[in-house]
Amino acid sequence: xxxxxxxxxxxxxxxxxxxxxxxxxxxxxxxxxxxxxxxxxxxxxxxxxxxxxxxxxxxxxxxxxxxxxxxxxxxxxxxxxxxxxxxxxxxxxxxxxxxxxxxxxxxxxxxxxxxxxxxxxxxxxxxxxxxxxxxxxxxxxxxxxxxxxxxxxxxxxxxxxxxxxxxxxxxxxxxxxxxxxxxxxxxxxxxxxxxxxxxxxxxxxxxxxxxxxxxxxxxxxxxxxxxxxxxx
Length: 232
Prior knowledge:
EC number: 2.4.1.266
Keywords: Glycosyltransferase, Magnesium, Transferase
Cofactor: Mg(2+); Mn(2+)
Family: Belongs to the glycosyltransferase 2 family.
GO molecular function: glycosyltransferase activity
Shape: globular
């Protein structure tokens, strides 16, 4: 059973062989991180083996089930490993060495100054070519539901104490997970902070695959918002 104070990091990953090893090593190097769990969501490129070689616990989905399901699987696995009351840090798999900078996201949780923190990232070096429709939908929807306006409402880098995590479960499906999480935690009266963190990740491009990704993201965010409107 873990005894020292810290967080358990959960990294959902799909075909991230080029980046997962550096990400895991960077996160594991932080004294605030107890362990790293990588949930391989049906990868076909050896992501799971590279994550294990880097020192992570690895849970594999036999097929792709989506980001939210991978995050949920990671939470369950953390409990099985004995981290059932530790705060949870969600980390995207493509941060690579920049994950060394994620400590400011963790500290307010361990200091009990916030119940959930959300990373705001600097402008990324490569333009993704997106229109921002999904971000606007998420930002406006969260504001309508809670009265709070967030700079980066879709940020996947988040740290939650167990009270906030309990309120966020069950997660909204697919790419709506962050929006649903934010609304559910705020509606429970808990403290949410955005924290500037110098992280860098792969930017979605402009090809057909990227456009399909944005369309799926828009759909999932819209569904998460609609479901939470119905709960009022």
